[in-house]
Amino acid sequence: MAQSLLPFVLFALVACISPGPTNLLILAHGAQRGLRASVAPILSGCLAAAGMVWVVGLGLAEVLLQHPVAQQLMSWLGVLWLSWLGWQLLRSAAAPLHGTQRARFGAVSAATLQLINPKVWMMAIAIIGVFAAPGQPVWQLALIFLIIALPCMTAWALLGVGSARWLQSPQRVRRFNQLLAWLLIVSAWSALLA
Question: Which controlled-vocabulary keywords does the entry list (predicted)?
Fold first, then answer.
């Protein structure tokens, strides 16, 4: 594992810090609710993704690869749900940043999003396919991934917290929410079409 640790860490860092549906929603949540309120979704999202690496390493990858229809169904369900979330963000684009009518992006939502996110499944399969060494406990890869994912997703929440200072006018809030909504929709569909 030692010789493949650095490439794995770099891969995990890029996978965790790059824009994706969960990171974009954590960004929006951080802007709307602050860092303290974002801790639970960050933890659950990171734990769910690390859990997926572990489960895929235990053999789920083989099952998914043997059943391409199940893969496609999961991908389509994930993209449709992410598109719905993007649509909801577009519809509420002009709502006040700290308004009470906004739905919370909580721990369950973050974990569920990871479970249906095609990008996370592809990443978990890639980790096991490329970095898992024979005889290596899969939990080690999952734990290292978790350790990398936590500060990466926290950085997105902090970016949201920092952007809240800039989002003082209704026009800026509307543009910010519209941008996040479109990025969410594009990232979901690009993962499916890739």
Answer: Cell membrane, Membrane, Transmembrane, Transmembrane helix
Domain ranges for the chain: 2-92+102-193
Confidence of residue 100 (pLDDT cuts 50, 70, 90): very low
The runs of H, that is alpha helices, within 92-169 are: 107-116, 118-131, 138-166
Q: Report the Cα 83 to chain-centroid distance in Å.
A: 14
Listed in sequence order, the residues at least 6 apart from 28 whose beta carbon sits closer than 8 Å to its beta carbon are 89, 105, 160, 177, 180
d(CA 142, CA 45): 13
Statement: residue 125 has pLDDT above 70: yes
Show the tokens assigned to 132: 């898992």
CA distance 32 to 76: 29
Measured CA to CA, the distance from residue 122 to residue 106 in angstroms comes to 24
